[in-house]
Amino acid sequence: MRTIPHRYLNTLILFTVLLFFYGCPRAFALDPKEVLVIANLNAAKSKGLALYYMEKRQIPKKNLVLVFMTDKETCTRDEYERKALPPIRRFLHQNTDIRALVTLFGVPLKISSPGKTPGEQAELQQMELKKKTMEDQLNDTSFTDATARREKQKELSALKKNRAEFLRKIDKLASFDSELSLIKKDPYDLNMWLPNPYYLGFKNQKTAIKKADVLMTSRLDGADETIVKRIINDSIEAEKTGLNGSAYFDARWKDPGERNVSGYGFYDKSIHQASQWLARKNQMTVVLNDDTTLFQKGECPDAALYCGWYSLARYIDAFSWAKGSVGFHIASSECATLKGETSQVWCKRMLDKGIAATIGPVGEPYVQSFPVPEIFFHYLTEGYLTLAESYLISLPYLSWKMVLIGDPLYRLNLNP
After folding, report:
1. How far apart are CA 129 and CA 131, in angstroms?
2. 35 has which bridge partners?
3. Torsion angle, alpha carbons of 322, 323, 329, 335, to 10
Protein backbone atom coordinates (compact mmCIF):
# COMPACT_ATOMS: atom_id res chain seq x y z
CA MET A 1 0.00 0.00 0.00
CA ARG A 2 1.33 3.38 -1.02
CA THR A 3 1.32 6.59 0.96
CA ILE A 4 1.31 10.22 -0.11
CA PRO A 5 1.76 13.38 2.00
CA HIS A 6 -1.36 14.63 3.76
CA ARG A 7 -1.03 17.98 5.48
CA TYR A 8 -4.23 17.57 7.46
CA LEU A 9 -3.35 14.35 9.24
CA ASN A 10 -1.84 15.64 12.48
CA THR A 11 -2.31 14.36 15.99
CA LEU A 12 -5.86 15.08 17.16
CA ILE A 13 -6.47 16.79 20.49
CA LEU A 14 -9.22 15.20 22.54
CA PHE A 15 -10.94 18.39 23.69
CA THR A 16 -11.33 19.53 20.06
CA VAL A 17 -13.04 16.26 19.21
CA LEU A 18 -15.38 16.54 22.17
CA LEU A 19 -16.22 20.14 21.30
CA PHE A 20 -17.14 19.06 17.78
CA PHE A 21 -19.35 16.27 19.06
CA TYR A 22 -21.27 18.26 21.64
CA GLY A 23 -21.62 21.21 19.26
CA CYS A 24 -23.41 19.10 16.62
CA PRO A 25 -26.14 17.05 18.35
CA ARG A 26 -28.39 16.88 15.24
CA ALA A 27 -25.63 15.25 13.25
CA PHE A 28 -25.85 12.03 15.24
CA ALA A 29 -28.23 9.88 17.32
CA LEU A 30 -29.22 7.71 14.34
CA ASP A 31 -32.74 6.30 14.60
CA PRO A 32 -34.21 3.27 12.72
CA LYS A 33 -36.72 5.46 10.91
CA GLU A 34 -33.78 7.40 9.41
CA VAL A 35 -32.32 4.29 7.75
CA LEU A 36 -33.04 3.39 4.12
CA VAL A 37 -32.43 -0.25 3.16
CA ILE A 38 -31.39 -1.12 -0.42
CA ALA A 39 -31.73 -4.62 -1.88
CA ASN A 40 -31.31 -6.12 -5.34
CA LEU A 41 -34.32 -7.86 -6.92
CA ASN A 42 -31.95 -9.62 -9.32
CA ALA A 43 -30.04 -11.30 -6.46
CA ALA A 44 -31.40 -14.31 -4.63
CA LYS A 45 -31.79 -13.74 -0.88
CA SER A 46 -31.24 -9.98 -1.10
CA LYS A 47 -34.84 -8.84 -0.52
CA GLY A 48 -35.45 -11.52 2.08
CA LEU A 49 -32.40 -10.47 4.07
CA ALA A 50 -33.46 -6.83 3.82
CA LEU A 51 -36.88 -7.64 5.27
CA TYR A 52 -35.27 -9.76 7.99
CA TYR A 53 -33.02 -6.87 9.02
CA MET A 54 -35.83 -4.33 8.92
CA GLU A 55 -38.02 -6.45 11.15
CA LYS A 56 -35.19 -7.02 13.63
CA ARG A 57 -34.38 -3.31 13.82
CA GLN A 58 -37.98 -2.08 13.50
CA ILE A 59 -37.16 -0.02 10.43
CA PRO A 60 -40.40 1.18 8.76
CA LYS A 61 -41.51 -1.14 5.96
CA LYS A 62 -41.66 1.77 3.53
CA ASN A 63 -37.90 2.35 3.99
CA LEU A 64 -36.98 -0.26 1.40
CA VAL A 65 -35.78 0.45 -2.13
CA LEU A 66 -35.43 -2.43 -4.57
CA VAL A 67 -33.04 -2.01 -7.47
CA PHE A 68 -32.68 -4.37 -10.42
CA MET A 69 -29.08 -4.68 -11.56
CA THR A 70 -26.22 -7.14 -11.80
CA ASP A 71 -25.79 -9.50 -8.88
CA LYS A 72 -22.03 -9.58 -9.46
CA GLU A 73 -19.65 -7.87 -7.05
CA THR A 74 -18.71 -5.26 -9.67
CA CYS A 75 -21.05 -3.08 -11.71
CA THR A 76 -20.21 -0.51 -14.36
CA ARG A 77 -20.50 3.22 -13.73
CA ASP A 78 -23.23 3.36 -16.38
CA GLU A 79 -25.29 0.66 -14.65
CA TYR A 80 -24.84 2.37 -11.28
CA GLU A 81 -26.11 5.65 -12.69
CA ARG A 82 -29.02 4.13 -14.69
CA LYS A 83 -30.26 1.39 -12.38
CA ALA A 84 -29.24 2.24 -8.83
CA LEU A 85 -29.37 6.01 -8.52
CA PRO A 86 -32.85 6.84 -9.92
CA PRO A 87 -35.03 4.73 -7.56
CA ILE A 88 -32.93 5.66 -4.52
CA ARG A 89 -33.05 9.36 -5.40
CA ARG A 90 -36.82 9.22 -5.89
CA PHE A 91 -37.24 7.79 -2.41
CA LEU A 92 -34.89 10.35 -0.85
CA HIS A 93 -36.71 13.19 -2.58
CA GLN A 94 -39.95 12.07 -0.92
CA ASN A 95 -38.40 11.14 2.45
CA THR A 96 -36.04 13.89 3.58
CA ASP A 97 -35.48 12.45 7.06
CA ILE A 98 -33.24 9.61 5.77
CA ARG A 99 -29.67 9.94 7.06
CA ALA A 100 -28.21 6.47 6.53
CA LEU A 101 -28.22 3.95 3.69
CA VAL A 102 -27.53 0.25 4.13
CA THR A 103 -26.89 -1.99 1.13
CA LEU A 104 -27.73 -5.68 1.36
CA PHE A 105 -26.15 -8.89 0.19
CA GLY A 106 -26.52 -8.99 -3.62
CA VAL A 107 -25.99 -5.26 -4.21
CA PRO A 108 -22.65 -4.74 -6.05
CA LEU A 109 -19.62 -4.08 -3.88
CA LYS A 110 -17.68 -1.84 -6.26
CA ILE A 111 -18.05 0.32 -9.38
CA SER A 112 -15.59 -0.10 -12.23
CA SER A 113 -13.88 2.90 -13.76
CA PRO A 114 -15.81 4.56 -16.61
CA GLY A 115 -12.49 5.05 -18.37
CA LYS A 116 -10.47 8.12 -19.24
CA THR A 117 -12.02 11.27 -20.66
CA PRO A 118 -10.79 12.43 -24.10
CA GLY A 119 -8.71 15.11 -22.37
CA GLU A 120 -7.17 12.62 -19.97
CA GLN A 121 -6.44 10.21 -22.81
CA ALA A 122 -4.78 12.96 -24.85
CA GLU A 123 -2.61 14.06 -21.92
CA LEU A 124 -1.55 10.48 -21.23
CA GLN A 125 -0.70 9.92 -24.93
CA GLN A 126 1.50 13.02 -24.88
CA MET A 127 3.35 11.67 -21.87
CA GLU A 128 3.78 8.26 -23.52
CA LEU A 129 5.10 9.83 -26.72
CA LYS A 130 7.56 12.00 -24.81
CA LYS A 131 8.64 8.99 -22.73
CA LYS A 132 9.28 6.89 -25.86
CA THR A 133 11.26 9.71 -27.47
CA MET A 134 13.52 9.99 -24.41
CA GLU A 135 14.00 6.22 -24.19
CA ASP A 136 14.90 6.06 -27.91
CA GLN A 137 17.49 8.80 -27.40
CA LEU A 138 19.04 6.97 -24.46
CA ASN A 139 19.11 3.73 -26.46
CA ASP A 140 20.87 5.45 -29.38
CA THR A 141 24.50 4.28 -29.33
CA SER A 142 25.60 7.54 -30.96
CA PHE A 143 24.37 9.48 -27.93
CA THR A 144 27.69 9.37 -26.04
CA ASP A 145 27.82 12.71 -24.22
CA ALA A 146 27.94 11.57 -20.57
CA THR A 147 26.66 14.85 -19.13
CA ALA A 148 23.78 15.04 -21.60
CA ARG A 149 22.86 11.41 -20.93
CA ARG A 150 22.66 12.06 -17.18
CA GLU A 151 20.39 15.06 -17.75
CA LYS A 152 18.18 13.05 -20.10
CA GLN A 153 17.94 10.21 -17.57
CA LYS A 154 16.84 12.73 -14.91
CA GLU A 155 14.20 14.10 -17.28
CA LEU A 156 12.94 10.58 -17.99
CA SER A 157 12.78 9.75 -14.29
CA ALA A 158 10.79 12.93 -13.60
CA LEU A 159 8.43 12.15 -16.47
CA LYS A 160 7.76 8.63 -15.18
CA LYS A 161 7.02 10.06 -11.74
CA ASN A 162 4.61 12.61 -13.21
CA ARG A 163 2.92 9.90 -15.26
CA ALA A 164 2.38 7.75 -12.17
CA GLU A 165 0.99 10.75 -10.29
CA PHE A 166 -1.36 11.55 -13.20
CA LEU A 167 -2.67 7.97 -13.31
CA ARG A 168 -3.26 8.13 -9.56
CA LYS A 169 -5.24 11.35 -9.90
CA ILE A 170 -7.56 9.95 -12.57
CA ASP A 171 -8.31 6.74 -10.66
CA LYS A 172 -12.11 6.26 -10.79
CA LEU A 173 -12.55 2.74 -9.38
CA ALA A 174 -14.85 3.17 -6.40
CA SER A 175 -16.69 1.46 -3.62
CA PHE A 176 -20.43 1.30 -4.40
CA ASP A 177 -21.25 2.47 -0.87
CA SER A 178 -18.74 5.31 -0.83
CA GLU A 179 -20.22 6.74 -4.03
CA LEU A 180 -23.70 6.22 -2.63
CA SER A 181 -22.82 8.44 0.33
CA LEU A 182 -22.84 11.37 -2.14
CA ILE A 183 -26.10 10.48 -3.89
CA LYS A 184 -27.51 13.89 -2.91
CA LYS A 185 -24.59 15.64 -4.61
CA ASP A 186 -24.73 15.80 -8.40
CA PRO A 187 -22.46 16.27 -10.23
CA TYR A 188 -19.07 15.91 -8.57
CA ASP A 189 -15.53 15.02 -9.60
CA LEU A 190 -15.07 11.25 -10.00
CA ASN A 191 -11.28 11.40 -10.09
CA MET A 192 -9.77 9.97 -6.92
CA TRP A 193 -11.30 11.10 -3.60
CA LEU A 194 -13.21 13.99 -2.03
CA PRO A 195 -12.60 15.22 1.54
CA ASN A 196 -15.32 14.17 3.99
CA PRO A 197 -16.75 17.25 5.77
CA TYR A 198 -17.70 15.12 8.80
CA TYR A 199 -14.15 13.89 9.37
CA LEU A 200 -12.92 15.41 12.63
CA GLY A 201 -9.43 15.94 11.24
CA PHE A 202 -10.87 18.42 8.72
CA LYS A 203 -12.69 20.48 11.33
CA ASN A 204 -12.73 24.17 10.33
CA GLN A 205 -11.33 23.28 6.89
CA LYS A 206 -13.30 24.22 3.78
CA THR A 207 -14.26 21.18 1.71
CA ALA A 208 -15.86 20.88 -1.72
CA ILE A 209 -18.54 18.66 -0.20
CA LYS A 210 -20.96 20.05 2.40
CA LYS A 211 -22.38 18.08 5.30
CA ALA A 212 -25.85 18.38 3.80
CA ASP A 213 -24.56 16.44 0.75
CA VAL A 214 -23.47 13.39 2.76
CA LEU A 215 -25.39 10.31 3.91
CA MET A 216 -23.96 7.59 6.13
CA THR A 217 -23.53 4.26 4.36
CA SER A 218 -22.83 0.71 5.45
CA ARG A 219 -23.35 -2.79 4.14
CA LEU A 220 -24.79 -6.08 5.38
CA ASP A 221 -22.90 -8.58 3.29
CA GLY A 222 -20.69 -11.63 3.29
CA ALA A 223 -20.00 -14.89 1.53
CA ASP A 224 -23.55 -16.19 2.11
CA GLU A 225 -26.86 -15.37 3.77
CA THR A 226 -25.98 -17.11 7.04
CA ILE A 227 -23.14 -14.65 7.61
CA VAL A 228 -25.46 -11.70 7.01
CA LYS A 229 -28.02 -13.00 9.50
CA ARG A 230 -25.27 -13.66 12.03
CA ILE A 231 -24.00 -10.08 11.71
CA ILE A 232 -27.52 -8.77 12.39
CA ASN A 233 -28.26 -11.12 15.28
CA ASP A 234 -24.86 -10.81 16.94
CA SER A 235 -24.98 -7.01 16.84
CA ILE A 236 -28.41 -6.90 18.47
CA GLU A 237 -27.49 -9.48 21.09
CA ALA A 238 -24.20 -7.74 21.95
CA GLU A 239 -26.11 -4.52 22.53
CA LYS A 240 -28.28 -6.28 25.09
CA THR A 241 -25.74 -8.46 26.86
CA GLY A 242 -22.61 -6.36 26.36
CA LEU A 243 -19.52 -6.82 24.21
CA ASN A 244 -17.26 -9.23 26.06
CA GLY A 245 -13.67 -10.02 25.19
CA SER A 246 -10.31 -8.35 24.68
CA ALA A 247 -9.02 -5.60 22.44
CA TYR A 248 -6.00 -6.36 20.24
CA PHE A 249 -3.89 -3.67 18.59
CA ASP A 250 -1.08 -4.60 16.23
CA ALA A 251 1.34 -1.71 15.64
CA ARG A 252 4.63 -2.08 13.80
CA TRP A 253 6.77 0.31 15.81
CA LYS A 254 7.16 1.71 19.30
CA ASP A 255 5.03 4.69 20.29
CA PRO A 256 6.78 7.83 18.95
CA GLY A 257 5.41 9.90 21.84
CA GLU A 258 4.99 13.60 21.10
CA ARG A 259 6.97 13.45 17.87
CA ASN A 260 4.94 14.47 14.79
CA VAL A 261 4.62 11.68 12.24
CA SER A 262 2.80 11.24 8.93
CA GLY A 263 1.75 8.51 6.50
CA TYR A 264 2.26 5.03 7.91
CA GLY A 265 3.76 6.56 11.06
CA PHE A 266 0.58 8.56 11.72
CA TYR A 267 -1.62 5.46 11.55
CA ASP A 268 0.81 3.42 13.61
CA LYS A 269 0.78 6.12 16.27
CA SER A 270 -3.02 6.26 16.09
CA ILE A 271 -3.16 2.52 16.81
CA HIS A 272 -1.06 3.18 19.91
CA GLN A 273 -3.38 5.98 20.98
CA ALA A 274 -6.48 3.85 20.47
CA SER A 275 -4.99 1.13 22.68
CA GLN A 276 -4.02 3.67 25.35
CA TRP A 277 -7.51 5.17 25.37
CA LEU A 278 -9.11 1.76 25.89
CA ALA A 279 -6.58 0.79 28.54
CA ARG A 280 -7.41 3.95 30.52
CA LYS A 281 -11.12 3.10 30.36
CA ASN A 282 -10.26 -0.17 32.14
CA GLN A 283 -13.33 -1.93 30.78
CA MET A 284 -11.60 -4.75 28.92
CA THR A 285 -8.21 -6.34 28.58
CA VAL A 286 -6.09 -4.48 26.02
CA VAL A 287 -3.22 -6.24 24.26
CA LEU A 288 -0.73 -4.18 22.23
CA ASN A 289 1.84 -5.75 19.92
CA ASP A 290 4.39 -3.07 18.99
CA ASP A 291 7.13 -4.94 17.18
CA THR A 292 7.55 -5.85 13.51
CA THR A 293 5.79 -9.20 13.84
CA LEU A 294 2.04 -9.68 13.59
CA PHE A 295 -0.25 -11.57 15.93
CA GLN A 296 0.05 -15.23 15.01
CA LYS A 297 -2.34 -18.17 15.02
CA GLY A 298 -4.16 -18.58 18.33
CA GLU A 299 -2.65 -15.50 20.00
CA CYS A 300 -5.90 -13.46 20.14
CA PRO A 301 -8.66 -15.42 21.91
CA ASP A 302 -12.05 -13.74 22.52
CA ALA A 303 -11.23 -10.79 20.27
CA ALA A 304 -13.83 -8.07 20.74
CA LEU A 305 -11.92 -5.22 19.06
CA TYR A 306 -9.00 -5.24 16.63
CA CYS A 307 -6.89 -2.92 14.54
CA GLY A 308 -3.57 -3.72 12.92
CA TRP A 309 -1.45 -3.80 9.78
CA TYR A 310 0.17 -4.99 7.32
CA SER A 311 -0.41 -8.43 5.85
CA LEU A 312 -1.53 -7.88 2.25
CA ALA A 313 -4.40 -10.17 1.18
CA ARG A 314 -3.16 -12.77 3.67
CA TYR A 315 -5.45 -13.15 6.65
CA ILE A 316 -3.71 -14.49 9.74
CA ASP A 317 -5.96 -16.76 11.75
CA ALA A 318 -4.88 -15.38 15.12
CA PHE A 319 -8.38 -14.60 16.39
CA SER A 320 -11.42 -16.20 17.86
CA TRP A 321 -14.02 -13.48 17.39
CA ALA A 322 -16.38 -12.56 20.21
CA LYS A 323 -20.06 -12.04 19.47
CA GLY A 324 -20.47 -8.47 18.26
CA SER A 325 -16.75 -7.95 17.58
CA VAL A 326 -15.50 -5.03 15.47
CA GLY A 327 -12.13 -4.61 13.79
CA PHE A 328 -10.20 -3.76 10.66
CA HIS A 329 -6.82 -4.41 9.07
CA ILE A 330 -4.97 -1.57 7.34
CA ALA A 331 -3.81 -2.92 3.97
CA SER A 332 -4.70 -2.52 0.30
CA SER A 333 -7.73 -4.15 -1.36
CA GLU A 334 -8.79 -6.07 1.75
CA CYS A 335 -12.43 -5.74 0.65
CA ALA A 336 -11.86 -6.46 -3.04
CA THR A 337 -14.19 -9.45 -2.67
CA LEU A 338 -16.52 -10.91 -0.07
CA LYS A 339 -17.45 -13.91 -2.21
CA GLY A 340 -14.21 -15.30 -3.66
CA GLU A 341 -13.96 -18.82 -2.31
CA THR A 342 -10.17 -18.95 -2.15
CA SER A 343 -9.57 -15.30 -1.25
CA GLN A 344 -7.62 -14.52 1.91
CA VAL A 345 -8.42 -10.80 2.04
CA TRP A 346 -9.03 -9.67 5.59
CA CYS A 347 -12.62 -8.42 5.34
CA LYS A 348 -13.91 -11.64 3.84
CA ARG A 349 -12.00 -13.92 6.17
CA MET A 350 -12.88 -11.94 9.31
CA LEU A 351 -16.56 -12.17 8.37
CA ASP A 352 -16.20 -15.87 7.58
CA LYS A 353 -14.66 -16.40 11.02
CA GLY A 354 -17.26 -14.49 13.02
CA ILE A 355 -16.59 -10.76 13.25
CA ALA A 356 -19.72 -8.56 13.29
CA ALA A 357 -18.31 -5.42 11.66
CA THR A 358 -15.24 -4.57 9.64
CA ILE A 359 -13.85 -1.97 7.24
CA GLY A 360 -11.72 -2.24 4.13
CA PRO A 361 -10.98 -0.93 0.63
CA VAL A 362 -12.04 -2.40 -2.70
CA GLY A 363 -8.75 -1.33 -4.34
CA GLU A 364 -5.59 0.66 -3.68
CA PRO A 365 -6.77 3.29 -1.18
CA TYR A 366 -3.55 4.95 0.11
CA VAL A 367 -3.11 4.67 3.84
CA GLN A 368 -4.67 8.03 4.74
CA SER A 369 -8.04 6.98 3.35
CA PHE A 370 -8.58 4.54 6.24
CA PRO A 371 -10.63 5.59 9.27
CA VAL A 372 -8.30 7.00 11.92
CA PRO A 373 -8.17 4.30 14.64
CA GLU A 374 -8.05 6.60 17.67
CA ILE A 375 -11.19 8.45 16.56
CA PHE A 376 -13.10 5.38 15.42
CA PHE A 377 -12.50 3.29 18.52
CA HIS A 378 -12.84 6.22 20.91
CA TYR A 379 -16.38 7.06 19.83
CA LEU A 380 -17.41 3.50 19.13
CA THR A 381 -16.52 2.40 22.65
CA GLU A 382 -18.04 5.47 24.31
CA GLY A 383 -21.38 3.96 23.36
CA TYR A 384 -23.14 7.16 22.33
CA LEU A 385 -22.59 6.91 18.58
CA THR A 386 -23.58 4.00 16.39
CA LEU A 387 -21.18 2.07 14.19
CA ALA A 388 -22.09 4.17 11.13
CA GLU A 389 -21.65 7.44 13.01
CA SER A 390 -18.28 6.46 14.45
CA TYR A 391 -17.15 5.49 10.96
CA LEU A 392 -18.35 8.75 9.41
CA ILE A 393 -16.45 11.07 11.75
CA SER A 394 -13.23 9.03 11.52
CA LEU A 395 -13.19 8.64 7.71
CA PRO A 396 -11.10 11.21 5.78
CA TYR A 397 -12.44 10.67 2.24
CA LEU A 398 -15.61 9.91 0.25
CA SER A 399 -16.22 8.85 -3.38
CA TRP A 400 -13.36 6.44 -2.92
CA LYS A 401 -12.53 2.82 -2.05
CA MET A 402 -13.61 2.25 1.56
CA VAL A 403 -16.49 0.02 2.72
CA LEU A 404 -18.08 -0.37 6.15
CA ILE A 405 -19.62 -3.81 6.65
CA GLY A 406 -21.93 -4.08 9.64
CA ASP A 407 -25.23 -2.95 11.10
CA PRO A 408 -25.24 0.88 10.94
CA LEU A 409 -27.43 1.01 14.05
CA TYR A 410 -25.08 -1.17 16.12
CA ARG A 411 -24.19 0.65 19.33
CA LEU A 412 -21.44 -0.90 21.43
CA ASN A 413 -22.22 -1.68 25.04
CA LEU A 414 -19.19 -2.17 27.30
CA ASN A 415 -21.26 -1.69 30.45
CA PRO A 416 -24.03 -4.29 30.42
Report:
1. 5
2. 100
3. 140
